[in-house]
Amino acid sequence: MPLLRLDKLLAGQGQGSRKEVHTLLRGGRVQVDGQTVTDAGQKVDPDRQRVTLDGHALLWRAHLYLMMNKPAGVISASRDPKARTVLDLLPADLCRPGLFPAGRLDKDTEGFLLITDDGAFAHDILAPRRHVEKIYLATLDRPADTADTDAFATGLTLEDGLHCLPARLWLGEGTDAYAAVREGKFHQVRRMFAARGKQVVHLRRIQIGGLALDESLAPGEARELTPAERDRIGLRL
């Protein structure tokens, strides 16, 4: 990969703003291959050289891919002056410039949210033509039936005339139902059930592509994806 300025590398790894990184360097806290470096403009090859901060190695990653178990009451945005966002929930070691939620979950919807700084990857999994399904578990005010399954499969037209792509629906226990969609229109899953005369009481995204939500993550927690997990997200079901 191309050589990177040391200050850009440190800032990109979430070690602070450019100004804060310069303070770290001036304080002699950064080493490259065992040698203390104070020059912010020094070029390094993160694939070949060992960069440490206070003796701890920094693992270079060109992009970051996070799975979050989004709680209700938090908005899917990078920043908002009036409300708490999903990025506000990230611990310091998972923060870095450029992160954004890849696809939205409504404020009251919970579950699997992908957060990344890789725009091309996000586009690939969100584009309907890629056929990457997002699977939701919905608890309804009354049970769905096979007529609803057929209606989802043919493609619903919502109350405002918006036509949805065909989607999969299968029935769970009681008033639970599972919906798999390839789009991400505003409040889409809730509106699809509303078009069938049913109200969503609780909604949770449980899977993207071939990757299910890690149920060990408490609401608001996040972790990095492994390369294998990242590949599974793009699987067509």
TrEMBL record:
The protein's matches in CDD domains, at most eight in alphabetical order, are given as: PseudoU_synth_RsuA (cd02553), S4 (cd00165)
One Gene Ontology term of the molecular function aspect: RNA binding
Q: Which UniProt keywords apply?
A: Isomerase, RNA-binding
Q: Quote the EC number.
A: 5.4.99.-
At the top level, the lineage of the source is: Bacteria
Q: Which Pfam families match?
A: PseudoU_synth_2, S4
What SMART domains would the database entry show?
S4
Q: Which residues form the RNA-binding S4 domain?
A: 4-65
Its Gene Ontology biological processes? enzyme-directed rRNA pseudouridine synthesis
Q: Does the keyword Isomerase apply?
A: yes
- Name the top EC class: isomerase
Under NCBIfam families, the record lists: pseudouridine synthase (TIGR00093)
Q: Which PANTHER family match?
A: PSEUDOURIDINE SYNTHASE, PSEUDOURIDINE SYNTHASE FAMILY PROTEIN-RELATED
Tell me which family the UniProt entry assigns to this protein. Belongs to the pseudouridine synthase RsuA family.
Q: Spell out the protein name for this chain.
A: Pseudouridine synthase
